[in-house]
Amino acid sequence: MNSTAFDSQSALAAQIVSELAALKPHSRVLIPSGSTPRWVYDALAATPIAERLTFFALDEWVNVPSESDGSCLSMINQDFVHKCAHPVRLVHFDPFAATAQNIAHYQAALEGQEFDYVILGVGMNGHIGLNEPGVSFAADYLQTQLDDVTIRVASQKYFSAEVTLTEGITVGLNKIIKAGKVIVIINHEAKKDIYQTIVNGDAQRTQVPAIYLKQFPHVHYYVTKNLEG
């Protein structure tokens, strides 16, 4: 397992921004929503780097309007896109489109290429995007039934109004591991237990996406030092 511990959130964010700056123009970057990447987005928005990259949203709630404050698109726009002083190209899922239509949209935007760089967070249950525990790890894209933990945490944390969450669409693990480099960020005290579960878990015999990914040499876990020990 490739794991690097940083002294602070800002140091972790600075490392990722430096790696994004080293990418070739028009590189394809897969990004998550939620609280995990906000330090990275703040640092990135203060630079012109994003203007020469193409970003893809990792996932989206199914049948939840994009303008809802807790939608994945809304969070990425608020935390990143709208903070940039320059245009940002962001490819995202349509929460009301058929799965096949969403997949075709991403495939067309990728133009037969793979993601050059992937940024991920980890859910309290070890999910990656909306790849929930127990889903197939062999899919490039999939629509999933949401885990009860995901529904509870997301409903309380991200939405200001009552919402019904049942399914999500996400880039699958099989697509993620084809990327040039994958960064998994774990940077909050509340994730200490799941981090230890990942460290001690068996990547060959697991139903937890965040454990499965650790077997690949180009997957790097960037964590803050408060999670160790």
From TrEMBL:
<dbReference type="GO" id="GO:0005975">
    <property type="term" value="P:carbohydrate metabolic process"/>
</dbReference>
<dbReference type="InterPro" id="IPR037171">
    <property type="entry name" value="NagB/RpiA_transferase-like"/>
</dbReference>
<dbReference type="GO" id="GO:0019262">
    <property type="term" value="P:N-acetylneuraminate catabolic process"/>
</dbReference>
<keyword id="KW-0378">Hydrolase</keyword>
<protein>
    <recommendedName>
        <fullName>Glucosamine/galactosamine-6-phosphate isomerase domain-containing protein</fullName>
    </recommendedName>
</protein>
<dbReference type="InterPro" id="IPR006148">
    <property type="entry name" value="Glc/Gal-6P_isomerase"/>
</dbReference>
<dbReference type="GO" id="GO:0004342">
    <property type="term" value="F:glucosamine-6-phosphate deaminase activity"/>
</dbReference>
<dbReference type="GO" id="GO:0005737">
    <property type="term" value="C:cytoplasm"/>
</dbReference>
<feature type="domain" description="Glucosamine/galactosamine-6-phosphate isomerase">
    <location>
        <begin position="10"/>
        <end position="214"/>
    </location>
</feature>
<dbReference type="GO" id="GO:0006046">
    <property type="term" value="P:N-acetylglucosamine catabolic process"/>
</dbReference>
<dbReference type="Pfam" id="PF01182">
    <property type="entry name" value="Glucosamine_iso"/>
</dbReference>
<dbReference type="GO" id="GO:0042802">
    <property type="term" value="F:identical protein binding"/>
</dbReference>
<dbReference type="GO" id="GO:0006043">
    <property type="term" value="P:glucosamine catabolic process"/>
</dbReference>
<dbReference type="InterPro" id="IPR004547">
    <property type="entry name" value="Glucosamine6P_isomerase"/>
</dbReference>
